[in-house]
UniProtKB/TrEMBL annotation, chain A:
Residues 1-22 are annotated as: Disordered. GO terms for molecular function: exonuclease activity; RNA binding. Residues 38-75 form the Exosome complex component N-terminal domain. It comes from the Eukaryota. CDD domains: KH-I_Rrp4_eukar, S1_Rrp4. One of its GO terms (cellular component) is nuclear exosome (RNase complex). Residues 87-158 form the RRP4 S1 domain. One of its GO terms (biological process) is U4 snRNA 3'-end processing. Belongs to the RRP4 family. Its main location: nucleus. This is Exosome complex exonuclease rrp4. Gene3D superfamilies: 2.40.50.100, Nucleic acid-binding proteins (2.40.50.140).
UniProtKB/TrEMBL annotation, chain B:
The lineage of its organism: Eukaryota, Fungi, Dikarya, Basidiomycota, Agaricomycotina. It comes from Mycena alexandri. This is Ribosomal RNA-processing protein 42. It holds the Pfam family RNase_PH. PANTHER family: EXOSOME COMPLEX COMPONENT RRP42, EXOSOME COMPLEX EXONUCLEASE RIBOSOMAL RNA PROCESSING PROTEIN. Belongs to the RNase PH family. It is found in: Cytoplasm; Nucleus, Nucleolus. It comes from the Eukaryota.
Amino acid sequence: MISFASFPVQPEHTRHFPDDEDAMDLDDGDFEAGGSKITWPGETITSSHAYMRGHGTYVEDEQVVASVAGTVERVNKLVTVRAIRTKYNPEVGDLVVGRITEVQPRRWKVDANSRQDAVLMLSSVNLPGGVQRRKLESDELQMRNFFEEGDLLVAEVQAFFSDGAMSLHTRSLKYGKLRNGQLVTIPPLLVRRLKSHFLTLPCGVDLILGLNGYIWVSKHVKESEQEGEEGFDAEAVYSNRNDFIDDSTRTAISRVANIIQVLASHFVPLTDTLLLEAYEWTVENDTDARGLLSEDVGDALVATITARA
Amino acid sequence: MASISTSKAEISYIQSGLLSNPPLRADGRGLHDFRIISLETGVAPLANGSAHLNIGKNPHDGGGGTEVLAAAKLEVENVDLGGGEGVDGGRIVCTVSCSPSAYPHLSAPALDDLQHDMSTLLHQTLAHPSLHPPNLGILAGKKSWLLNLDCVVLADAGNAHDALFMAARAALWDCKVPRTRAVEYKAAAAPGAQAVESGEMDVDHDAEAQQSGFDTRSIARAVDFELPDYWDEGEVLGGRERWPVCVTLNVPPGSKGPLVHYLDAIPQEEAATPLRLLLVFSFPPASSPNLQAIRVLGSGELESDQIRDFVANGEKHARKIWDALNGKLKEEDHRRGQKARDRFARR
C-alpha cells in the first residue's frame, strides 16, 4: 500500500504585521496578563530602557526582541522568553529515560535529550550482590555487563556537575535497564510533573514518562514478578532478553505509542487520565494503531479528549 | 549504514514482532505499507527540473520524515576540445550529499563514505546507457549537454534509498532541455555550392571563412548554437518514463521458510535488520520490466535461491510505487501547467 500526498500549500498572501510598532509593545499591565502569550522570533517585546533582556531575547534599536518562539516570562525587570521547542532542562529529582552513548572508566555517558550528555557513575548503580557495598575492581572490568552502548535505562537526576552536566543514579529497584517495549520521543515540555511517572494502563501496558521527553512503553510486569529487593538478581536486572510478549500486548503497545505521537503532534501535554481516555476512545471507535497515523483520526481523537478534559 | 544506537532489547522486540504471526510493526503498519509520501516538483527555480520528497511526515505538524531534495541542472560542454570530459550525445552525473543534521551520530569521514556510496549507486544506475535520454546532444562532435543531478538528503527517518530514487525520478521527469538551433558560417564565395544541412539552421555569410575547393570531406559545419526562444522552457527529456524506482526489501533475521520481508523501514527497524536488498526497477511502456540495479546492504546472508523470489516480490512492490508515483507526477504537471494558467487568467 502506497499513497502520495502534497505538501501543504503556502498561503498566497502573507500576513502583514501591523505597522504601528507601539501596538506590539507590552506595557506593565500586559506583562501580568500576557502569561500565555506566544512570541515569534523577531517580535518586539518591550523597551530596553525599562527592562533587562534575559534568555531568548536580544536588544535591537533600544527594544527587547524575542529570538525564539515561546512564552514571555518576567522576573522583576528581567524579561525572558522560554522556548517551546527546547532541550530538556534537568532538575534534581527528575525521572529521566536515557540511552548509554559511551562507557568510560567508572562511569557511563548517557544521552538524556539534554544539552550535554548525562553521567551515570558506577557508584550510583545497583551492583550484583544486592547489599550496598563498595565497588570493586571486578565491577569496573565488567561495566559492559551492566550497561553497554545503546542500552536504555530509567534513572533519577541526582546532582549536577560544575559544568552543568547532570549526574544520574539508579539506586532503586524501580530504576534500571529497560526492555519489553519501545521508545517514543516527544518534546520535553509536554511531559508534566506527575505524582508518579510510572503508569500502568489497564490494557496491560506500562508507561514510564521521562521528564526529558523520552517515554518508554512496555509490557506490564506484575508487582510480584518484579525483580525483588531481597534476592537482587543482577542477571535479571541487567538482562538484554525480552520476556514473551503476546500479540494483543504488542498491539496495545503500538496503539499507546501512536496515541502519544498523535497527542504530541497536536501539542497536548500528557497526563495519565488523558492517555487512558484516549486509549478508551480508540477502543470504542475500533481504531487500530495504523488508523491513528492518518490525520483525520488523529484530529478526531484530540478534539474528543481535549473537549472532555 | 546509518545505525542509530539501539539497545539489544529493542532490536529483539522489533525482530520478534516482525516474525510473529500476524506480523506486527512498532507503528502498527502492515509489512508492505509505506508511510505517507509527499511530493512536489518544480521547487528550485534555477534548476531545469527539481523535486522535493518526504516520506513519513507527521500529518498534523509536518515534522519528521525522510526528506530529499533533487535538482537537475543542464550545462553546455565541449565534446572534444583539450581533453574535455564531454561525450557526444551528452552525459549524466549524479551526486548525493547528506546533510550532517540528518546523520548527527556520524563523524565527518563516515558521512563522506555514506554520501559516496549513495552517489555511486545513483550514478551507476541512472547514467547507464540503457536509460540515456536521446536529446542531450547539441552539435555532433562539438557540444553536448551535461546533466547534473544533485540530491540532498536533508533528514533521514529511514528508507533513504527509496526516497532518493523517487526524488531523482521526479526531478528528471520534470527536467526540460532548452531547444537549440545550430549556427553555421558559410563561405560567401561559393553560393549554392554547399547544401544547407538542415532547414532550420541559421546561415551567416562570412567572407573570412574561405574554404579550399579541394576539401571534399563532409565536415559538420555547424560551429555554434543558439536558443531560438529564450523564454521557452524547452522539451522534456526523451524517454523520461523510463527512469527507474527503487524498492528496499528489508529481510529480518531468521526468516527461513516463507520469505518475510517488509518495506519502508524506520531507523530503528533498519538497525534491527541485518539484510536489506535494494532493487531498482524500470517499467518501460510496451516492454517487459527491467531490473536496473541490485544492491545488498548489511551483514546478513542471502541464499541464491531466495534471490529469485525476492526479485519477483520486489517487482510487484516496485510496480505499485511506479504507478502511484506516475499518478502523482501527472497530478503535479497538471497543477503547475493547467491550474497555474487558470489562476493566472483569473487575475
